[in-house]
Amino acid sequence: MPPTNAIARLRSTLWRLRCCGAEGMLETDPRTFAIASGVHVDWWRAVDISSRILSTLTWTGAPDPMLLADLIPLLEAGDLLDGWSDAWAAPERCRYHAVRSLTLNRLADWSLDPENHNGAPEQLAGGASYTHALRGTAPGLYSRQSVPAASLSAPHLP
Fold first, then answer.
1. Which runs of consecutive H residues, i.e. helices, occur in 20-153?
2. Nearest-angstrom CA–CA distance, 71 and 88
3. Which residues span the domain enclosing 11?
4. What does pTM read for this prediction?
5. Which residues of 49-60 are buried (b: 16+ CB within 10 A; e: fewer)?
6. What residue ranges of the chain have pLDDT lower than 50?
7. What is the pLDDT of residues 27-52, one digit of tens each?
8. Residues 113, 71: one domain?
9. Phi and psi, residue 28, nearest 5°
10. Are residues 61 and 17 in the same domain?
11. Does any domain span residue 55?
């Protein structure tokens, strides 16, 4: 997309946000703009919670029920940036899908381990079911994914 088209698209989007009462969502100055510090982005939140759950599973062996309660609705919300055609969106959507899949696979593995059945959080059952639907296969019949730790960081926008 030529820069002039991108600038026009951005101005149009910002104007629509302003008309919708979302003026405080962005911080701007004459040269830059950014999402305001008080705005929560579900994408960043899901990646952050996923990385915290993966860390918890690695170090303590059990997922934090509070993190699960926060994560499951985000994972059930659907694909990231669905329908966006911008060049940067496709790789970020793929990266997010890999992080989401890794998290759900680890949660499903944890929930399927007989040693973890006592006191397993109820939310995990929903997460495991969602994982199997995402995989499209029965437990144990999927190929493991490997996602580098660096890819669990916040998304990189142009």
1. 42-59, 65-76, 89-112, 122-135
2. 24
3. 3-35
4. 0.58
5. bbbbbbebbeee
6. 119-123, 131-158
7. 877 777 778 888 877 888 888 998 89
8. yes
9. -130, 155
10. no
11. yes
